[in-house]
Amino acid sequence: MTQPTPRPTTGPRTILLTGAAGGVGTFLRERLPGYGYRLRPADLRPVEGAPDALVCDLRDPEAVRAAVRGVDAVVHLGGISVEDSFDAVLDANVRGLHHLYEAVRQEGVGRVVFASSNHAVGFVPLPAAGELVGSAIVPRPDTYYGLSKVFGEGLASLYADKYGVETVSIRIGSCFAEPRSVRMLSTWLSPDDCARLVHAALTAPGVGHTVVNGISANTRAWWDLGSARALGYRPQDDAEVFAAAVLAEHGELDPGHPDARLVGGWFTEVEPPRP
Ligand code: NAI
Ligand code: 15L
C-alpha cells in the first residue's frame, strides 16, 4: 500500500480550490484567506477577479495533475452542480473526480474536502417534527447529479481506506447569500458558515473519510449536525432571520409538495435531458 508523503505543516497551507468561479467558490475565495490559507483557484472558465486562476478542465487528467501538484489540500467544488444528462455528469463528476483523486494520490496530498450534496440522499423522507436526519444514512440519490455525489463519497472512502487520502464529504444543503425558498429556511448554509465548515474539515485531525451534513444553525433544520460539530464546526447563522420575508413572498409549503416531504425537495421530480 502506498502512503502519501506528509507535507510540512509550517506556514500558510496552500489549497487548490476547484470550481472557484462558481457561487460557493466565490464565497470561499472571499473568506478562506481570512483563515490563513493561500488559495490556488481553478475552474473551467475564467475566475472573475482572479486573473492568475488556473484554467483546468476536470475531464483532462494531466491538467488536473498539474493543478494538484504542490498543494497541501484540495477543496473540491468543481463540476456539474445541478441535474444534467448522464454523459455530462459521468464526464465531469465521475471521471473528473477520479482524475482528481488519482492526482491527489500520486502527488501525496493528504486531505480533500468534497462538496457532496443533499441530493445524494434526496429521496430520504423528511423526519417527523422534532426529529433530525443524520449523515450516517443509506444514500437515496434523486438525480444523476445526486448519484454522482454518492459515487464521490464512495471514491473518497476507497482512497481513505486504501491510500490514506483523507476526505470530509460535506452534504451541502443550499449555499447561497440568502435562502431563496421556504425549503431553504431548513437547508440554508450561509456563506460564512460554509467557510467555517470547510475550515473545520481542513483542520480536524484523523478524519479518514467522514460524511457531514452542511447547513447553518437553522431553527427549521431537519438535518443533524453531530458529525460536523465533531470536526469543530460551530455554525453562527440561522435562516430564520429571513423567514418573514421568504414566507411573505412564497407562502407556506403545501404538505404534499416534495419540498415538504423529501430531503431533495423538488429535485426529486426533475428529469434529466435525454438524447
Ligand atoms: P456552480 O455551478 O456555481 O460552480 C461549479 C463550478 O464548477 C463552475 O464554476 C463551473 O465552471 C465548474 N465546472 C463545471 N464543470 C467543470 C469541469 N469539467 N472542469 C472544471 N470545472 C468545472 O456550483 P456551486 O453552487 O458553486 O456549487 C459548488 C459545489 O458544491 C458543486 O460541486 C455543487 O454540486 C456543490 N453543492 C452546492 C450546493 C449549493 O447550494 N450551492 C448544494 C450542494 C452541493
Ligand atoms: C445542490 O446540490 C445544488 O448544487 C444547488 O444549486 C442547490 O440546488 C442545492 O443543491 C439545493 O438543494 O438547494
Please describe what this structure looks like.
It is built from eight helices and seven strands; from the N terminus they run E-H-E-E-H-E-H-E-H-E-H-H-E-H-H. The protein has a seven-stranded parallel beta sheet with strand order 3-2-1-4-5-6-7, with helices on both faces. The protein has one domain: NAD(P)-binding Rossmann-like Domain (Rossmann fold). By secondary structure, the chain is of the alpha/beta class. Helix 1 crosses helix 6, helix 2 crosses helix 3 and helix 3 packs parallel to helix 4. The N terminus is likely disordered. The structure holds 1,4-dihydronicotinamide adenine dinucleotide and D-galactaro-1,5-lactone. D-galactaro-1,5-lactone binds next to loops.
Topology:
Elements: E1 14-18, H1 23-31, E2 38-43, E3 54-55, H2 61-68, E4 73-76, H3 86-107, E5 111-117, H4 144-163, E6 166-172, H5 184-187, H6 191-203, E7 209-214, H7 226-230, H8 243-250
Parallel strand pairs: 1-2, 1-4, 2-3, 4-5, 5-6, 6-7
This protein binds 1,4-dihydronicotinamide adenine dinucleotide and D-galactaro-1,5-lactone (15L).
D-galactaro-1,5-lactone (15L) binds next to loops.
